[in-house]
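Exercise 3.2. Students should predict the tertiary structure of the chain below and write it as structure tokens, then compare their answer with the key that follows.

Predict this chain's 3D structure.
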Amino acid sequence: MLKVSVKWQKEVFSDVEIDTCQPPYVFKCQLYDLTGVPPERQKIMVKGGLLKDDSDWSTLGVKQGQRLMMMGTADEIVKAPEKGPVFVEDLPEEEQVVALGHSAGLFNLGNTCYMNSTVQCLHSVPELKSALSKYSQTRRSNDVDHSSHMLTVATCELFNDLDKSVKPVAPMQFWMLLRKKYPQFGQLHNGNFMQQDAEECWTQLLYTLSQSLRSSNTSENHDTVKRLFGIDIISRVHCQESGEESSETESIYSLKCHISQEVNHLHEGLRHGLKSELEKASPALGHSAVYLKESHINGLPRYLTIQFVRFFWKRESNQKAKILRKVDYPLELDVYDFCSDDLRKKLEAPRQKLRDEEGKKLGLKSSEKGSDSKDSDVKMTEAEGSSSNGTEESSVAMSQDGKEPQLTGVYDLVAVLTHKGRSADSGHYVAWVKQESGKWIEYDDDNPIPQREEDITKLSGGGDWHMAYICMYKARVVDM
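Answer key:
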């Protein structure tokens, strides 16, 4: 780390840190925070000419305490006249954020699109933001290690920055602490940070937050991450050769959509992912045998995360390869068929009420059929948008009588993390996030782009375009 001073116009900024392990673009992002001059407009004089985004610090001869000269024009907000129309750019920044209807983008600090897209998807979960806000106001519990605590606080601060800014945010503190907690994300190749797997970043970040929030002293935060994202699985393990049978339970944070030549739709991939064969020692036979493992969902979360298993290790080239096959996924997902018998019984009454509510909106009479009837099973296509576009009916907040809304097994798509490219070690990640208004925003690093809902389901693969790697669905709930 070097500390330099930077002169810009009549101002001098002292003790500006340069991390020589990071490309100069990161340094420019720091100066953007200080001066308001976007990186592409900055002209910084160094040995040999102007500082380039991908220059090698070791060849520039920058020394401790050196003064650098920067030229460039900052973003300016034109002041509105005392009387007359008020434009968005004339409003205070907090009001501009509200007027935009979406949060800020994130600067790419050098192959960090995997991290940016993960953050944007998780940032869209208001219950997680609320829990983080409460956590940051408390002292760290003794059973949370320092690195987890610091990363959790940095996540909260980054979420706050995204909500308060209309300009792109440089997530430098968060990135530094993520690499400190998980060194794999700090791998270098030819002096540059390597592209990483977004699913690994998603999993590691959720694990860290689960440890911190679970240990919070406030009962409201107890096991927050499991309540929001945890999926309880019950499995039947059967050996046909010996007749042995046992059951297993586990809690996971995502369902896997396995992709094969037979899989054309998410439902097929999920069904395939809940069945597997494993070979292990059989006590009854005295040798190894093949066991069939059949799993069902026994507990549902508020937000259902699904990973499309697109990457696999290719031995011939000794690198990760990608399955490009098109796999369609819906805007509304019903997981009732994947649930255990016990969970189906619990879902029957809420599903009936949901059908009745949807029916009233369509001008239909309440159904008297039970949830076990195929004809009366919830079909969301006809009622598309009836409750998926608003936040009130999908909210998991407590109802007025203090009871928590009940899950129905029906979910609405709220975020898609896509990957473009042929390998997990390269390519580009982007987040597509549904806003509270019902509109969709594509977060391509520091560039938020409005999108149409009908274009979101076209990210299903089949070519070199962006294709879904992680989908996040929000529970449709009812008050009972």
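Discussion points: The CA atoms of residues 46 and 62 lie 8 Å apart. The first strand starts at residue 2 and ends at 8.
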